[in-house]
């Protein structure tokens, strides 16, 4: 098999990036080729200046560090970055490192958030898209070409083992993990109509929860209150399978499917079902639909914010330059905020403190919306191809780290 | 023209002047020799070797470098192995272009097998391939293709035919001139019966050469006409339509003419002088046809190659053809004659022949070294090829023959002729020459005769080896044809070594070098710390990234029977590339990077690795050979001059 690695591959999978849960909230970059010693391009001893509260924006030739309050780029990394194609970015539980997937070279770029330099580039499996941080000392990158997770040790900054997850040895896959799960996690794969149980200690797939014969699994979420895990049944099925994480049983199936995100208070689960944001009760066994709001265009990612006035959702759409703000209590759209144009791939978006951050790669900008005062919008020029963002800090969903 | 009673002064002066002019010409030719061209080998094709096409082309076009194509046979096989090509056509306006129509039989790998007969009479053959649709090139097929492309190694039959032809040419040129210059002037002192015997023997010798000529010409023509596989009348008819075929017809006509002249001579219809001259010039004409299609003329430069090759054969003709005359004519000269008179006659012939032979040796020596400089330009080429081995053997035999000739000329001749001078011109004490009481041949005479015969036998062996040299790839070609150049680089990791090899490729400074668009077999091997080859637990991949354009290609490698992991790829852009091999040997994920440079491929640049022709390369070794040739020329010129002056003084 020969495959041209480029925007085509990225575009085909980027649809899930912006709307996946917050572990993988962006896309990837390029690193120095043949960097055998895995050292960063900046060799001088950098000062420990920290990155807490900054937004990292990943463009083709630059990683910009933005102060969301002022909308200014306070620092950037350009060395060793050349026409990079970013995919997932992950911040470690201690916020000391950012791992970013660079797809064109199938590498993970490790950025030290204290020094703001690239510490290493790590070769990983082919066609990597998503990356997860299920254990304090490990980052797991999924190789879609192999349907397997490449486990990177944070101390050695090398791939220590490979965990086979997909049944066919290939397919776009994700990992659902939470501290409630203990030493297990669930893996989905668009080729497998099942949720695979992964033993995080044994580094192996120990079982699979079957949902039927057809389709696969894609988006996923977990609601701690109910103890349910949700898996979008992708392909022609377009339902959402619900499993009880205590018993690992397939307990329910919702008649809609899409990207999901949990509110910071873990009370509601938002599900983007094509042009509708369905708001589900995250505390009930039945996953009761509390409300639904129609949205023009193609909603790509939703994030919830608890403001003084109540719970709100910010929804970024792929085919619109505006962010839609929804009042969950009222079940209606209360605001539309310009956020720049995207080039066609699914728009990404993350939350951080009270900010909703979304890149506009067609404009080369990043929009930072202060949700408590939605008139306060910063549009920051970053560079061509900026399509991935990450907030260094608490992104509000309680999913980071353990 | 002033003429002495026996004509010797004029002959001497003419011979000396001719020798000097000849050597001077050679020096000039050698100074202006600028080898440029090569053999007929595939330089480009459309589709290119390794091309990946969406649809099959209507025709396959092949462009050759070096010589024009006389005959071509191109066969194309489709993905299912069936032959899908029509008749091969050589462009009448440009005989380096060959094309063949093909059928479109769908997706898959198409294999093009070609074989051509070039102007130099040699066949070259090869195979290349292209794909239609999504089909990938097969590693084993590519490897086989690279190893199959080759010059022909010649055949025993062709070598024999060439050797016989050279023997004939040497006889046709050397026998008449030696008879005319060395034998007949001396025979004026002997009886008419003996002269008739000599005439008869000379005619028989030339007739023998003519028979060899006919055998050689016919044999060579048949060999070449069947070079591309066809046989019988159609093959000969097709061959006659080529330039080589036309030359061959001319050679047959010349052979017939020489035979006719000899019949006339045998029947005393024409005078001795006339038939000797006719045979000599017939041999010269035949030599020109042979030299025109020689290795040197076709691979180096048509004019220079023809001249050098011609002079080489001509020089050998003077030397060896003369020896043939001595070996056959001396006996009737001495039989029944007074010992002293016999000795004097033999000594006189040898003295005259010595000038001819020295001239021939000088000419053959100079040109032989120039030819060696062209066709064996490096010591490696000389020592490491069949051509080099044959050439070395030939040179050794030539030196041995020269030693025998030296003994005859400088030792035995002094025994025959008390007034003969030594090597440095001093008159040596005259040894007593034993003469048999019955008036038969003396011991010295017998030694002279046997010396000449041994020298002749050795030199006949030399000529047969020369025939072989003209039928096999030269050392320059064979040394350049080192098979597929393969290069490999290793990198170490914690658990062992990853080796990446490429073929065809070169390496330097831990970097691989390949050619743009050329299909290259990349092969990865994993070894543990003990050096033992190990397999990967998961798919081994090769990622190739082009630094300038950021093009990235990722390929799954296929496991081979050798336990390596391989693919065939033609990298699409020149410049620096980084290659990464990744796999999981012994449960450890390994990803190692390698540097590679793709050499730009200009349209006029040919890079057929299997035909790395070194012919005419200006190497130090070739320079020394050329210099040695000039030294031989100067020494030979001096020797010929001294011999001629001594001969003149003696005549006076």
UniProtKB/TrEMBL annotation, chain B:
Keyword Transmembrane helix: yes
Annotated transmembrane regions: 20-42, 164-184, 205-227, 247-266, 273-290, 310-334, 355-376, 396-416, 456-479, 621-642
Family matches, as Pfam families: CopC, CopD
Residue ranges of domain Copper resistance protein D in the record: 348-469
Top-rank taxon: Archaea
GO BP term, example: copper ion transport
A GO molecular function held by the record: copper ion binding
Domain CopC stretches: 39-132
InterPro entries, sorted: CopC/D, CopC_dom, Cu-R_CopD_dom, Cu-Rt/internalin_Ig-like, Ig_E-set
Residue runs in coiled coils: none
Membrane topology label: Multi-pass membrane protein
Record localization: Cell membrane
A GO cellular-component term linked to this record: periplasmic space
Keyword Iron-sulfur included in the entry's annotation: no
Keywords: Cell membrane, Copper, Membrane, Metal-binding, Signal, Transmembrane, Transmembrane helix
The protein's name in its UniProt record: Copper resistance protein CopC/CopD
Species of origin: Natronocalculus amylovorans
Upper taxonomic lineage: Archaea, Methanobacteriati, Methanobacteriota, Stenosarchaea group, Halobacteria
């Amino acid at each position: 098999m020969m495959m041209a690695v480029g925007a085509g591959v990225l575009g085909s999978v980027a649809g899930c990036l912006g709307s996946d849960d917050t572990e993988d909230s962006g896309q990837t970059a390029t690193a120095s080729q043949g960097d055998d010693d895995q050292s960063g391009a900046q060799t001088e001893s950098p000062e420990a200046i920290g990155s807490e509260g900054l937004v990292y924006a990943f463009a083709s030739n630059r990683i910009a560090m933005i102060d969301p309050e002022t909308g200014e780029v306070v620092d950037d990394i350009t060395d060793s970055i050349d026409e990079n194609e970013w995919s997932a970015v992950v911040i470690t539980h201690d916020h000391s490192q950012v791992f970013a997937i660079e797809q064109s070279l199938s590498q993970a770029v490790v950025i030290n958030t204290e020094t703001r330099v690239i510490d290493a580039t790590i070769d990983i499996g082919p066609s990597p898209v998503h990356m997860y941080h299920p254990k304090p000392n490990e980052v797991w990158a999924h190789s879609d070409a192999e349907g397997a997770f490449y486990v990177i040790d944070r101390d050695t900054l090398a791939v220590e083992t490979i965990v086979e997850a997909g049944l066919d040895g290939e397919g776009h896959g994700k990992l659902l993990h939470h501290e409630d799960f203990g030493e297990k996690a669930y893996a989905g794969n668009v080729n497998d109509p099942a949720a695979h149980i992964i033993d995080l200690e044994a580094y192996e797939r120990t079982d699979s929860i079957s949902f039927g014969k057809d389709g696969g699994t894609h988006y996923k979420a977990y609601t701690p209150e109910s103890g349910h895990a949700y898996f979008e049944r992708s392909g022609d099925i377009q339902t959402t399978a619900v499993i009880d994480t205590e018993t690992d049983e397939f307990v329910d199936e919702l008649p809609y499917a899409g990207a999901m995100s949990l509110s910071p208070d873990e009370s509601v689960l938002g599900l983007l079902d094509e042009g509708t944001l369905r708001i589900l009760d995250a505390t009930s066994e039945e996953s009761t639909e509390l409300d639904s709001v129609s949205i023009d265009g193609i909603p790509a990612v939703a994030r919830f914010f608890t403001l003084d006035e109540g719970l709100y959702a910010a929804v970024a759409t792929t085919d619109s330059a505006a962010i839609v703000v929804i009042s969950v209590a009222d079940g209606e759209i209360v605001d539309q905020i310009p956020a720049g144009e995207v080039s066609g791939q699914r728009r990404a978006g993350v939350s951080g403190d009270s900010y909703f951050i979304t890149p506009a790669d067609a404009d080369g900008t990043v929009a930072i919306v202060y949700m408590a005062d939605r008139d306060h919008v910063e549009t920051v020029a970053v560079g061509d191809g900026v399509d991935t963002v990450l907030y260094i800090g608490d992104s509000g969903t309680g999913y980071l780290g353990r | 023209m002033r003429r002495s009673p026996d004509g010797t002064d004029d002959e001497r002066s003419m011979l000396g002047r001719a020798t000097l002019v000849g050597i001077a010409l050679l020096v000039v030719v050698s100074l202006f020799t600028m080898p440029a061209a090569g053999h007929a080998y595939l330089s480009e094709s459309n589709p290119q070797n390794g091309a990946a096409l969406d649809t099959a082309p209507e025709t396959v076009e092949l462009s050759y470098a070096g010589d024009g194509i006389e005959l071509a046979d191109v066969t194309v096989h489709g993905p299912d192995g069936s032959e899908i090509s029509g008749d091969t056509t050589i462009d009448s306006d440009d005989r380096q272009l060959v094309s063949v129509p093909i059928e479109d039989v769908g997706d898959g790998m198409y294999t093009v097998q070609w074989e051509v007969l070039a102007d130099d009479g040699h066949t070259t053959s090869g195979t290349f391939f292209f794909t239609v649709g999504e089909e990938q090139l097969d590693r084993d097929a590519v490897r086989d293709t690279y190893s199959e492309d080759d010059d022909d190694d010649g055949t025993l039959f062709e070598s024999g035919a060439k050797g016989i032809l050279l023997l004939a040419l040497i006889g046709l040129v050397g026998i008449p001139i030696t008879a005319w210059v060395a034998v007949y002037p001396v025979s004026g002192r002997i009886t008419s019966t003996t002269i008739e015997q000599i005439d008869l023997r000379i005619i028989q010798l030339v007739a023998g050469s003519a028979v060899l000529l006919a055998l050689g010409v016919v044999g060579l023509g048949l060999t070449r006409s069947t070079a591309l596989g066809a046989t019988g009348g159609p093959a000969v008819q097709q061959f006659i339509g080529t330039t080589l075929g036309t030359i061959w017809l001319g050679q047959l006509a010349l052979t017939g003419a020489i035979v006719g002249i000899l019949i006339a001579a045998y029947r005393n219809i024409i005078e001795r002088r006339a038939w000797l001259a006719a045979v000599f010039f017939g041999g010269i004409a035949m030599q020109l046809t042979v030299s025109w299609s020689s290795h040197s003329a076709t691979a180096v430069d048509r004019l220079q190659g023809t001249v050098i090759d011609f002079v080489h054969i001509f020089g050998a003709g003077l030397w060896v053809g003369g020896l043939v005359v001595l070996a056959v004519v001396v006996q009737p000269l001495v039989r029944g004659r007074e010992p002293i008179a016999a000795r004097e006659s033999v000594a006189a012939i040898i003295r005259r022949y010595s000038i001819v032979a020295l001239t021939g040796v000088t000419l053959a020596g100079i040109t032989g070294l120039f030819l060696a400089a062209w066709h064996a330009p490096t010591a490696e080429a000389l020592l490491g090829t069949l051509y080099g081995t044959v050439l070395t053997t030939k040179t050794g035999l030539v030196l041995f023959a020269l030693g025998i000739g030296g003994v005859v000329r400088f030792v035995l001749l002094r025994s025959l002729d008390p007034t003969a001078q030594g090597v440095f011109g001093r008159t040596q004490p005259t040894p007593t020459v034993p003469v048999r009481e019955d008036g038969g041949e003396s011991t010295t005479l017998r030694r002279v005769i046997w010396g000449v015969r041994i020298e002749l036998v050795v030199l006949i062996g030399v000529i047969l080896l020369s025939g072989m040299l003209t039928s096999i790839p030269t050392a320059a070609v064979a040394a350049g044809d080192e098979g597929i150049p393969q290069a490999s680089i290793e990198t170490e990791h914690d658990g062992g070594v990853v080796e990446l090899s490429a073929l065809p490729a070169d390496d330097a400074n831990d970097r691989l070098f390949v050619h743009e668009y050329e299909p290259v077999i990349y092969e990865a091997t994993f070894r543990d710390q003990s050096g033992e080859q190990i397999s990967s637990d998961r798919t081994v991949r090769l990622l190739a990234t082009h630094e300038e354009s950021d093009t990235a290609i990722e390929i799954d490698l296929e496991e081979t029977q050798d336990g390596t992991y391989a693919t065939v790829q033609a990298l699409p852009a020149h410049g620096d590339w980084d290659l990464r091999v990744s796999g999981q040997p012994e449960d450890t994920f390994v990803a190692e990077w390698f540097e590679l440079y793709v050499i730009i491929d200009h349209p006029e640049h040919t890079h057929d690795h299997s035909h790395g022709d070194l012919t005419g390369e200006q190497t130090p070794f070739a320079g020394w050979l050329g210099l040695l040739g000039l030294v031989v020329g100067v020494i030979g010129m001096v020797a010929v001059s001294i011999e001629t002056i001594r001969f003149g003084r003696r005549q006076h």
